[in-house]
User: Which sequence fits this backbone?
């Protein structure tokens, strides 16, 4: 029989091995689409029905990647389609969703049980549905070139591996590693995948994959999986009702709760699918997994996370906000002026992306010290096996420390990151400007100074912009690009090209005090500081924030940012905007911490926590400075939900204000920025999705109630009242027409 494919090509050799090469013409990376599913179906039919074919190999023809997994926009559309299919009853809609969302799982099971052996040969990135395809095959070979990765990252965007991933991983590797892989969604390198038993064989060169796969077939690879053989038994703790199982599963559940606070339906479904699936034969186990998958797709958390952390983030990374038609900037060399804490980090991420860096500071010593930061990070990477000694040397060779401004003349873009001082910045900007060719964009990394005022020190204000990084620069994926009044489109395009070249996600914000992210962060810290002064025990504040979904408690975050920096910001706000703009209780608390106690945060080993090496514990002396409720009866009466609400609502409200004021103008940027920039409870999909999901009217009611109880900082803004009155959402009103 013959079949025709568009995403694959097929060759059958004289030994009867069919070789399917996956190569989607219109995509840079293969993804699983409806067409691919149809063709996989046809492929399985062809192999099983054609007597001339004895077995098959699936490879990718895209160099360095097998597949990015299922086309997530398809999942997004699937869910959207269900919601809009008004003809169907809720029950029929759910059944239709189950039918379509479990299709891939059925195809893979068919492949697994078709009677002829399949080998998947992985030449690079292999994610999600691609990994599940490999696990369903009878043999797996992977290239071990330091770059190839396989993994099941679905949980990180609110869903979970629903095409057999949870069941096959848990039957192929030890339960602890399997649980970790599924719940963390981290990718595995080839050696680790082999050690876990998920890969059968490694090869060093991509060119060896197909011969090795055919040899595996020729050596008699069985087309029957262990779990389909009679008498198959799970071993060790995978057998839930066994001594080992009794040890593992209660602890695993506790760990799951500690890590997620049960906020993520995707993670919860992994636990349930595994637990129930391991008690059943494969076909029923897969059916259980499929049902949970369809159920998770219908949750708000999955919709919001897929939208923000996949669809919107991808759009922003691809330059959704880049001015159309602006010529792209081919970056070779960037200048970084100021080799301190931030400048050193910016130099590192630039050099890591392959750019040459001119790193300038006042003294050769300071410039060298900035470069040594890259050395320290690379040494760590080498030690952990993420980079080679040669990588370290090559990266360091790209960074040229200097004190000579003339060296900036060779740069394609320059970022200034000197002291946060108007006079110092003015002098430095003028000195840089004197050396820069006319077309080169100059950016400032300032956190607080208006870009428009800094631009006045540059002869070409149109080519001056803010590029605001977050600390630590190597870990934080968000960058705010700040438009001054006169900043032109080409400068914006250049800044975006730079941010994209270093692999970070840009959001475009307008020039306003605190920009976007820091405004919400300061609101979060303020709320926690006020809670503390109300007598709420510090440990309770920290734990409730984590339960609400924040990755770091607000007191720990104050320490990370530095307590004295928070104090300085409060002082600067008072000086610029007056007494009414700050909260005396917070000012007093920070004064005591910083001025009286010299508790500056992690940087001097003492803040709200005491630090000893990597360990920390809440500072016991805090209760003496700020009385904390200790009577157990009174502690029981503390309204925990009220505190969780306060900690999230104040941040979302600040985001809504930023939106109304035009500081952020695109709902996608507000949401993506809130998760990447300040860790706003990711299961919500971000600050504006949080409000939309609750409904503007309910959110406004909650704000009004909080304002009555805790102060006018909770008073909702006009835009929110307006959305509530007309029963609209941020996405409904603004998704297609940025504010
Ligand atoms: P830092 O004090 O660690 O580093 C500043 C560096 O600038 C020092 O190495 C200093 O020697 C150098 N410098 C000062 N005057 C100079 C001059 N005339 N010529 C050349 N170099 C000079 O400060 P930082 O924390 O890295 O902050 C730098 C900038 O980044 C500030 O504008 C700050 O607001 C901003 N920022 C900081 C953070 C943060 O978390 N620290 C986050 C985002 C943005």
Assistant:
């Amino acid at each position: 029989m013959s079949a025709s494919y568009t995403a694959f090509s097929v060759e059958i050799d004289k030994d009867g091995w069919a070789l399917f090469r996956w190569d989607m013409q219109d995509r840079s990376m293969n993804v699983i689409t409806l067409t691919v599913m149809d063709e996989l179906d046809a492929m399985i039919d062809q192999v099983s029905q054609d007597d001339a074919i004895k077995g098959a190999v699936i490879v990718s023809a895209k160099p360095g990647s097998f597949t990015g997994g299922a086309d997530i926009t398809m999942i997004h559309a699937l869910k959207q389609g269900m919601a809009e299919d008004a003809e169907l009853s809720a029950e029929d809609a759910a059944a239709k969703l189950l039918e379509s969302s479990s299709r891939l799982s059925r195809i893979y099971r068919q492949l697994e049980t078709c009677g002829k052996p399949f080998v998947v040969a992985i030449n690079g990135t292999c994610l999600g549905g691609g990994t599940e395809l490999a696990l369903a095959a009878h043999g797996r070979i992977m290239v071990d070139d330091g770059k190839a990765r396989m993994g099941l990252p679905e949980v990180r965007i609110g869903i979970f591996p629903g095409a057999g991933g949870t069941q096959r991983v848990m039957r192929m590797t030890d339960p602890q590693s399997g649980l970790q892989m599924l719940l963390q969604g981290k990718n595995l390198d080839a050696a680790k995948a082999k050690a876990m038993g998920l890969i059968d064989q490694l090869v060093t060169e991509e060119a060896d994959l197909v011969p090795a796969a055919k040899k595996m077939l020729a050596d008699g690879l069985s087309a029957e999986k262990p779990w389909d053989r009679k008498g198959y038994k799970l071993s060790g703790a995978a057998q839930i009702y066994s001594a080992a199982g009794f040890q593992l599963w209660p602890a695993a559940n506790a760990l799951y709760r500690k890590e997620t606070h049960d906020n993520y339906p995707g993670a919860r479904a992994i636990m349930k699918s595994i637990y129930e699936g391991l008690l059943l034969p494969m076909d029923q186990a897969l059916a259980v997994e499929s049902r949970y998958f369809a159920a998770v797709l219908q949750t708000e958390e999955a919709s919001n996370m897929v939208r923000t952390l996949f669809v919107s983030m991808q759009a922003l990374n691809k330059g959704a906000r880049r001015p159309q038609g602006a010529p792209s900037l081919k970056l070779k060399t960037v200048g970084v002026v100021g080799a301190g804490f931030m400048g050193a980090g910016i130099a590192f991420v630039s050099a890591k992306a392959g750019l040459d860096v001119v790193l300038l500071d006042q003294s050769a010593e300071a410039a060298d010290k900035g470069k040594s930061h890259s050395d320290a990070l690379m040494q760590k990477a080498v030690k952990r096996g993420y980079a080679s000694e040669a990588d370290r040397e090559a990266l360091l060779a790209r960074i040229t420390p200097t004190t000579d401004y003339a060296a900036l003349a060779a740069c394609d873009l320059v970022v200034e990151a000197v002291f946060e001082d108007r006079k110092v910045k003015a002098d430095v900007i003028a000195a840089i400007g004197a050396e820069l060719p006319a077309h080169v964009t100059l950016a400032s990394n300032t956190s607080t100074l208006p870009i428009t005022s800094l631009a006045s020190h540059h002869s070409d204000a149109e080519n001056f912009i803010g590029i605001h990084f977050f600390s630590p620069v190597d870990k934080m994926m968000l960058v705010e690009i700040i438009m001054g009044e006169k900043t032109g489109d080409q400068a914006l395009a250049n800044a975006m090209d730079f941010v994209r070249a270093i692999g970070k996600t840009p959001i475009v914000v307008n020039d306003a005090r605190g920009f976007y992210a820091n405004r919400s962060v300061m609101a979060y810290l303020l709320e926690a500081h006020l809670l503390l002064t109300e007598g709420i025990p510090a440990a309770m504040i920290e734990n409730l924030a984590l339960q609400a979904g924040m990755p770091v408690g607000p007191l720990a975050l104050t320490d990370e940012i530095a307590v004295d920096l928070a104090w300085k910001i409060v002082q600067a706000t008072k000086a610029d905007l007056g007494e009414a703009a700050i909260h005396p209780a917070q000012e007093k608390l920070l004064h005591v911490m910083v001025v009286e106690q010299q508790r500056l945060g992690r940087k001097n080993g003492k803040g709200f926590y005491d630090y000893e090496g990597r360990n920390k514990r809440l500072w016991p002396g805090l209760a003496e400075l700020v009385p904390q409720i200790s009577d157990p009866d009174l502690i029981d009466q503390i309204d925990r939900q009220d505190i969780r609400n306060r900690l999230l609502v104040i941040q979302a409200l600040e985001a809504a204000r930023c939106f109304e004021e035009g500081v952020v103008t695109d709902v996608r940027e507000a949401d993506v920025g809130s998760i990447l920039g300040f860790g706003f409870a990711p299961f919500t999909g971000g600050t504006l999705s949080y409000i939309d999901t609750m409904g503007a009217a309910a959110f406004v009611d909650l704000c009004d109630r909080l304002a009555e109880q805790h102060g006018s900082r909770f008073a909702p803004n006009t835009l929110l009242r307006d959305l509530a009155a007309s029963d609209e959402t941020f996405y409904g009103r603004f998704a297609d027409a940025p504010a």
Notes: Residues 237 and 248 are 6 Å apart (CA to CA).
